[in-house]
Amino acid sequence: MSKTDLAAVKAGDTLPPLTLPPVNRTMLALFAGASGDHNAIHIDIDYARKAGMADVFAHGMLSMAWLGRLLTQWVDQRRIRDFGVRFTGITHLGHEITCTGRVTEVFEADGEKRARLEIQTANQYGEAKVLGDAVVAL
User: Fold this and answer.
1) DSSP of 22-40, one letter per residue?
2) Pick from 22, 27, 42, 79: most CB atoms within 10 A?
3) How far from 123 is each of 10, 31, 36, 67, 135, CA to CA, in Å?
4) Using an 8 Å Cβ cutoff, are 89 and 81 in contact?
5) Residue 102 in this model has a pLDDT that exceeds 70
6) How confident is the model at residue 4 (pLDDT cuts 50, 70, 90)?
7) What does the longest C-alpha to C-alpha distance in the chain come to?
8) Burial, 115: exposed, middle or buried (Cβ in 10 Å; 0-12, 13-18, 19+)?
9) Share of the chain above pLDDT 90, in %
10) Could you give the C-alpha distances from 100 to 65, 69, 94, 128, in angstroms and in order?
């Protein structure tokens, strides 16, 4: 589906997947700076180990940001009506994340045609890390 054929969207359609490079320390440091989330569990290996983790791991909101990119590569951000997630697993260093989405329903609300979507991130092993849903105006 491209941004130009939204009138043809139907339940069962899938969004073009978004595959990201492997998570690394630079990515986490850059996200910490961009987001203002400098929680040491994500950027300081000594702190992470003291907390019982083997190493640092990705911010949950980084995964949500990737899902936002998945949506905005499909529709203009002004069309997003609802967007929420729940975190189901830790995204570790080296994970290669792919974001996917599927239309579950097309309906009308407030005078506009909308699509309800199931979205998720999963690593290269197929393990879901973030599950979410969104509603977009078509």
Assistant:
1) PP-HHHHHHHHHHH----G
2) 42
3) 27, 19, 25, 13, 24
4) no
5) yes
6) low
7) 54
8) buried
9) 95
10) 13, 11, 19, 10
Distance of CA 59 to the CA centre of its chain: 11
Assigned token pair, 87? 């975190």
Question: Measuring CA to CA, which residue among 137, 98, 106, 101 is closest to residue 119?
Answer: 101
3-state SS class at 118: strand
Q: Which two tokens stand for residue 121?
A: 């991130």
Q: The sheet that has 112-122: what strands, in order across it?
A: 18-19, 98-109, 112-122, 128-137, 80-87
Query: Which two structure tokens, joined as six digits, stand for 51?
Result: 């907390």
Q: Are strands 112-122 and 98-109 parallel, antiparallel or unpaired?
A: antiparallel
Integer CA distances (angstroms), 70 to 6, 17, 44, 132, 138, in order:
15, 7, 29, 12, 16
At 79, give phi and psi (nearest 5°).
-90, -10
